[in-house]
Amino acid sequence: MPSPFELLKLLELFLPKICTSANFVVPLHPISILAHYATFRTLKTFKTFKTLYTIMINSQDVKNGVCIRMDGRLYFVIDFLHVKPGKGNTIMRVKFKDVVDGRVLERRFNIGEKLEDVRVDRRPYQYLYKEGEDYIFMNQETFEQVPITHDLITGVDFLKEGFVCEVVSDASTDTILFAELPTKVELVITYTEPGLKGDTATNTLKPATLETGAEIRVPLFCNEGETIRVDTRDGSYCERVR
């Protein structure tokens, strides 16, 4: 028989899916859970056990932020719409964003069509330093340090030591999918041409270099040494920080 701890872990995996409309690929009766205990005992880690099973959801149950695996790639749902043609059945029109390269695509699904749901973890990590081509982050909860490559960091040009980012990982494998900076960060201007005193126009811009080395365009009245707020999604100037 499984120990109380092992039973708790098994129920932690299966019970959330029993209570939702998601369809698991194995029966969800408690006896079925125990039947899979033999498989669990042959594995070295509980993480390996979780990867043996696939969680499926109906197309009409998707919502923004859900992670789906299609054609061997991971996508986040960024928009969805129920479409009722003049004739015929209702369909789902879903817009996805590729986790790796950010490519956006749109797909159509029949109501009831099954999609593979990937559970993801979102946790705060603090950026510590750069080591070679990797950026070293520390888990704010466990203090574990992990390397994340340049390509997996959204807004990396505005990353500064000490910034806390949200790191998203595949919960079944602990594979890091990407790290995302806050939408807006505060950075110091290290170089720009002197501003014009009294000029408060914001529609005329000039180049400026930030403390991370990123180059953006700022209003004429901005000067070296000033702290500004920057939108990490597109590198646009937001405002001066007084």
How is this structure best summarized?
By secondary structure, the protein is mainly beta. It has helices at 4-18, 30-35, 37-41, 46-51, and strands spanning 23-24, 55-58, 67-70, 73-83, 91-98, 104-110, 114-118, 120-131, 134-139, 145-149, 153-154, 164-170, 175-180, 184-192, 205-210, 215-219, 227-231, 236-240.
Number of domains: 3
- Overall SS class: mainly beta
Instruction: Provide a count of the helices.
Output: 4
CATH class of the largest domain: Mainly Beta
What would CATH call the architecture of the largest domain?
Roll
- What is the makeup of the main sheet? 7 strands, antiparallel
Shape summary? flat
Distance between the termini: 64 Å
H/E element sequence: HEHHHEEEEEEEEEEEEEEEEE
CATH level-3 fold name of the largest domain: SH3 type barrels
Tell me the total number of β-strands: 18
What would you report as the Rg, rounded to the nearest angstrom? 24 Å
Unreliable stretches covering 5 or more consecutive residues: 16-29, 43-52
Order of strands, widest sheet:
1-2-7-3-4-5-6
